[in-house]
Description:
The chain is about 40% helix and about 15% strand. It is of the alpha/beta class. The longest helix is centred in the N-terminal third of the chain and has 13 residues, at about 10-20. The chain is globular, with a radius of gyration of 17 Å.
Amino acid sequence: MKFYLIDDDANVCNILKIIIQQKKLGEACGMASNGMDALEDLKFIQPDIVIVDLLMPVMDGIHFVRKAKELYPDITYVMLSQVSSKEMVAQAYECGVTFFLQKPVNGVEVVRVLGSCCPTGRWWWPTTRQRARAALAEAGRTPPDRACWPPGC
């Protein structure tokens, strides 16, 4: 999976990048500090998932997702914010985000949410995949042929 990160706080982008790399979720293929720059980048970078902050300068996350969804409807959008207003969270979902993450960033929650973004709704993490493969081998069975079961498992 390729992730594109948008937040005006570079530390948040760096934390997300570290989580993605350490948990082997995929690669962080790009970062931007505002929605306008991100829209320019998305012309050239084709991520699977965009993680975007709600409140940013130039273009906020909600306006970014609305515009990006029109241009790139196949990308999954995850909103990230300290805002806990139910109205703002509802607006985020209405504009097309799949999940909403609360700041401060929690590694366990990030992994759970990003795992839920798999197109078929199933994501096999390396440790889960290894345990499942071992259990199936002990039972004399082979892994199922599923879209989210990565090759070489």
